[in-house]
Specification:
Blueprint (H helix, E strand, L loop, with lengths): L16 E6 L2 E4 L3 H12 L4 E5 L20 E2 L2 E2 L3 H13 L23 H15 L2 E4 L2 E8 L2 E8 L2 E7 L1 E4 L5 H5 L4 E2 L7 E7 L11 E5 L7 H22 L3 E4 L10 E2 L7 H6 L6 E4 L7 E2 L2 E2 L11 E3 L11 E3 L8 H7 L2 H20 L9 H10 L8
Helix pairs in contact: 1-3, 1-8, 2-3, 2-8, 8-9
Length: 394
């Protein structure tokens, strides 16, 4: 009888059983930042595994439904490109969509967000991982992590699967820096958190890649663990059902998971302050740009505070490295920052840029047998430029 097992050469998704997997880089979390990090590490020649607790890549963009990422431009020019932009661009082009004119400065920042078909984006993300050689493991998450002589032993669990991953570097793209927390490295979190959102559409079906759905705030939404995510999802769905009954109309669309804006941030070697952010401070170790208003959502709504004309914040490498750590780097909204700075840094284009930086740094750390902060900045910047990213001039 012909063996029907799928090999890693035939599929990017690894399946079946109790496994030991060796890798150079483990990316934990296949969301906005994680998928970009995984593609970058794999394209740089590192053996890469990305584990994702959910059913697809893309995170907030796909499962959360916020499929209108921004911002890739500032003050009339593009400031974030690279692998994230490549994926967004291909999604829009394949869908026959339109792009904002980045050469024009909009009256409102959201006018230059790019509308993306979330379903195509998820498919293209998988394809690009497979093409790069990054292996995907869905429905898995770390249960225990231990240091080894050459890096890390990460024991992961999923239904019907126990996997031990032996790797040299970890990229934590979990949003709330869950791996950093498991290692008892310092994290930051305020007593209050921004509300999450449940995205839905009543009355008419949304057009993917052309419009944004409606949303309801979920106050207290927290992505820290399965219990808090469950609570956020239940609260959001309950409110949507209540709205359906009140308005007596059809529910045409509902995202499967709440989108969370804020949870833990790492305490990094550098903490980006709101003054750093709003002044456009160019850090000596700046590795990518970010651009968005200070955008703190509260129970009373949100009143974005636009950045001053010509201001473009930068993100330093040291804000992606947990304080006192080795062989681990983060990317995404858990970037080391105060709460107000984080409200602008947390958006998707900036998270994609951070993901590419983290991926490039981890791959170089493997190549040079060192830890992320010991990788020469010039080497990181050269690799980013080679793969299409825009790097700040320091």
């Amino acid at each position: 009888m012909k063996d029907s097992r799928i090999t890693s050469r035939q599929s990017a998704v690894m399946t079946d059983g109790d496994l030991t997997t060796e890798a150079d880089v483990l990316v934990v979390g296949g969301g906005t930042a994680g998928v970009i990090a995984a593609i970058q590490t794999a394209r740089a020649g590192a053996r890469t595994v990305v584990i994702e607790r959910g059913t697809q890549l893309g995170g907030t963009m796909t499962t959360g439904g916020v499929s209108y990422p921004g911002l890739f431009d500032a003050w009339g020019k593009q400031i974030i490109a690279g692998i994230g932009w490549e994926l967004v661009k291909e999604s829009v082009e394949l869908d026959g969509g339109e792009f904002p004119n980045f050469s024009k400065v909009p009256n409102r920042h959201y006018q230059n967000q790019v509308y993306v078909n979330q379903f195509l984006y998820a498919l293209l993300a998988e394809e690009k991982c497979e093409q790069a050689g990054a292996k995907i493991a869905y429905y898995e998450f770390p249960q225990a992590i231990a240091k080894t002589a050459s890096g890390w032993q990460v024991d992961c669990v999923g239904f019907g699967t126990q996997r031990r991953i032996l790797c040299k570097q970890i990229v934590d793209c979990t949003g709330g820096a869950e791996v950093v927390g498991m290692l008892n490295l310092p994290r930051l979190r305020g007593e209050e958190r921004q509300p999450g959102s449940m995205l839905f559409q009543l009355g008419k079906a949304p057009t993917p890649g052309r419009s944004s759905p409606s949303l309801l705030y979920i106050h207290g939404a927290d992505s820290t663990n399965s219990r808090t995510v469950t609570a956020a999802n239940l609260a959001g769905r309950k409110d949507v059902l209540k709205k359906v009954r009140i308005e007596k109309t059809q529910l045409m669309h509902l995202q499967p998971e709440a989108s969370v804006r804020e949870s833990y941030r790492i305490e990094g070697e550098t903490i980006i302050t709101v003054d750093d952010y709003t002044s456009g401070r160019v850090f000596k170790d700046a590795v990518c740009y970010a651009f968005y208003p200070v955008d703190l959502h509260t129970k009373g709504g949100v009143k974005p505070a636009p950045l001053g004309r010509g201001t473009v914040p930068t993100i330093p490498l040291t804000a992606l490295v947990p304080k006192g750590s080795r062989n681990i780097i983060v990317a995404g909204r858990c970037v080391s920052s105060d709460r107000l700075a984080n409200s602008g840094l947390r958006v998707q284009a900036s998270c994609m840029a951070m993901g590419q930086v983290a991926g490039a740094t981890a791959a170089l750390a493997v190549r040079e047998n060192t830890t992320p902060l010991k990788v020469p900045l010039d080497d990181i910047r050269k690799m980013l430029i080679k793969h299409g990213a825009i790097v700040p001039t320091v």
